[in-house]
Amino acid sequence: MKLKVVAPTQARSIIANAVYLVSQGNNDIGISFSMTRSALMRGIVTRGMYTTKLTGWNKKFMKQIYDQGARKFAVMGVIPLGCLPMTRIVGKCNLFANILAEDYNGKLRNGVKTWPKEAGFRGSKFVYVDMFNTLMDVIKNYRKYGFSNANNGCCCMPTAIIPCPNPHNHVFYDFVHPSERAYTTISKKLVQDIKKGLA
User: Fold this and answer.
1) What is this structure's pTM?
2) What pLDDT does 110 receive?
3) What is the distance between the alpha carbons of residues 14 and 3, in angstroms, rounded to a whole number?
4) Residue of 59, 69, 159, 174 with fewest CB within 10 Å of its CB?
5) What is the Cα–Cα distance from 179 to 131, expressed in whole angstroms?
6) C-alpha–C-alpha distance, residues 121 and 177, integer Å
7) Into which family does the record put it (predicted)?
8) 95 to each of 83, 92, 98, 119, 175, how far by Cα in Å?
């Protein structure tokens, strides 16, 4: 498909009417989990300080694209990071990681309600995309959704470095990423929520 050159007025309209899907925080909490936990346990930083800082970075990023003309934001919360194959403890979801994720998501949820009222985001629309509970429903009820494994990744696990022959049966493809089928399963609800929230 060739890109079309449009007049500045039309370009501004395209930018303003597009939906910007913003996903920030999964790696900050999930990938740096052990480092974060160590700092929190030593009292260097509190959970609230950490998640407030992440929320601030997210808002700052959205302000930058708002200043470029963006007006519609779908802000994704983080997934249940304590239920990733990487962070599970003896097969059970890691409470510490999930508490961090929910604390951050709560701050994003509040931001989505208050940011459009601020002068710096005048004329904007925000919708919160609940990745945590939507994916958690699939993890808890994986058989209902046609999966046979919600605890282990199909690939790249310490006990299975070669990809499994049936990735569609797994909620997670590897130790941190949901599988393509898991994303397909949750995307239908998420798209509906975005359309409804930005209508």
Assistant:
1) 0.87
2) 97
3) 13
4) 159
5) 14
6) 32
7) Belongs to the 'GDSL' lipolytic enzyme family.
8) 9, 9, 5, 38, 17
**Going from the N-terminus, what domains does the chain have, and what CATH number goes with each?**
8-197 (3.40.50.1110)
Q: What span, in angstroms and rounded, lies between the C-alpha atoms of 96 and 15?
A: 39
Element (H, E) at 73: strand 72-76
Residues 158 and 85 sit within 8 Å (Cβ to Cβ): no
> Three-state SS for 4?
coil
Written as one letter, the residue type at 87 is T
Put residue 43 in one of left, alpha, beta given phi > 0 → left and psi -120 to 50 → alpha.
left
Residue 163: how many CB atoms within 10 A of its CB? 13
Structure tokens that stand for 163 in this block: 């990809």
Distance CA 77, CA 51 (A): 12
Q: Which residue has the tokens 């696990």?
A: 157
Residues 100, 27: contact at Cβ < 8 Å? no
Whole-angstrom Cα distance, residue 67 to residue 71? 9
In the block, tokens 């920030």 appear at 24
Mean pLDDT, 10 residues at a time, the chain of 199 residues: 71 90 89 64 75 93 96 97 89 90 97 95 97 98 97 81 88 93 96 94
DSSP secondary structure string, 89-131?
A: BTTB--HHHHHHHHHHHHHHHHHHHHGGGSGGGTT-EEEEE-H
